[in-house]
Amino acid sequence: xxxxxxxxxxxxxxxxxxxxxxxxxxxxxxxxxxxxxxxxxxxxxxxxxxxxxxxxxxxxxxxxxxxxxxxxxxxxxxxxxxxxxxxxxxxxxxxxxxxxxxxxxxxxxxxxxxxxxxxxxxxxxxxxxxxxxxxxxxxxxxxxxxxxxxxxxxxxxxxxxxxxxxxxxxxxxxxxxxxxxxxxxxxxxxxxxxxxxxxxxxxxxxxxxxxxxxxxxxxxxxxxxxxxxxxxxxxxxxxxxx
Amino acid sequence: xxxxxxxxxxxxxxxxxxxxxxxxxxxxxxxxxxxxxxxxxxxxxxxxxxxxxxxxxxxxxxxxxxxxxxxxxxxxxxxxxxxxxxxxxxxxxxxxxxxxxxxxxxxxxxxxxxxxxxxxxxxxxxxxxxxxxxxxxxxxxxxxxxxxxxxxxxxxxxxxxxxxxxxxxxxxxxxxxxxxxxxxxxxxxxxxxxxxxxxxxxxxxxxxxxxxxxxxxxxxxxxxxxxxxxxxxxxxxxxxxxxxxxxxxxxxxxxxxxxxxxxxxxxxxxxxxxxxxxxxxxxxxxxxxxxxxxxxxxxxxxxxxxxxxxxx
Lengths: 242, 312
Known about the structure:
- The complex is a heterodimer.
- By secondary structure, chain A is mainly α.
- Chain A has helices at 14-38, 44-53, 56-87, 103-116, 131-155, 157-161, 172-201, 211-214, 219-225, 227-234, 238-241, and strands at 8-10, 216-218.
- By secondary structure, chain B is mostly helical.
- The termini of chain B are far apart.
- A two-stranded antiparallel ribbon of chain B has the order 1-2.
- Chain B is 48% helix and 2% strand.
């Protein structure tokens, strides 16, 4: 048995990385082209300049729709991929490696915040995904459900309208447009603060964590950031580490 | 002499600008292009006596002799002639809209001579009926939307008041007016409501297909929405919306109402409030978390170096 420790650990395989690249590319395109419609009445001149950069209102609209559908397909691909990986046993559900939120995550969050304000002496020990990562990940599911579905309704209003029960038709469109626009703002703010801080701005990651390209993290980093996963993967090789 | 000289200087360039206009036109403009300001008519209305010769020459009517429309004023100056010189249909219209015209009802009616069809539509519209039947002076006739006939330019030019870029604002001249809204029981803040709608947002950012007021409500033959002939009457909406949205259904056409988003209906209202609460609480959590974490990272870097518990 080889007791040598590798230098790096493959955190995300190539399929996961491609899914991530498609996700953020379409997210940025959707944000940029959709932004002009968010507050058009406030700064007309600014929005005209912005929308011209995206080829005018018609082109921006086409980009927005194509990017939206690509993102939804990317999401569907991800869900099918997960189902495949779990059913073939290539991915296992374990307490310390799963992305599924557990009670531990709530305690981790409380403990971490207590640490931030100096009320706890040590940081919580995270598994493969900390509560920060889980929040980041499931926010996408929330966004796909709310923004993706409402965006799909808005893109094909005539076809979709037949699905609505008659008693909803007087307010459903209002609800859908509020859903799309307010939740899109939430998604943008979320990515701007949560994801950007945790994966780009932190002093040890600035300007960004390279994991999205290489899929790898160093063992040092893994031990520090994901000690419980490290324990599972390399725990029995502790002797070799020192 | 000192008073006359500037007038001569103003008139000289006019010679060139109005060379396309007829001699009669020039006779009128000799005074009217130089005169500035308003005069009060016998009826008490304040009218602007100035006609900008240059802009007139550049308008679609620039080639006309003034008397084509101002049929009353054939003899010099402004002496009303016998009715015989005025076509019967124009005279009939003029008598019906006299209460609306500030200065020259015949000229206001004269549009009907060339634009017969449009005028007929207008007469049967809610705007026209208000002037012709209800004898109100604030109903819209030709000039209220198209501006002064002296300066009308083609619809596709930027200076046209009914150009796609200007038409919404032009309708808003009256439909944003709170007094008129009160008097006729119209909805208020119609423009804001339009700008908030899917169509209005697209219009603002300059989408070429974005519909304006007239695409759904019609122009000359505009009717009250309750009128079964109106394109936005409940029974006609599937057809009207179907012009752009092929296969529009009864359930689909409710999407556009010009209702302010989340203000009239309780369900969208509370739904939006709920989303705002969600948005603000998530926002507060993530921003607070990020700020606290950043501060603690700095604290650890500065004060706890080498204590081992933290990174390096």
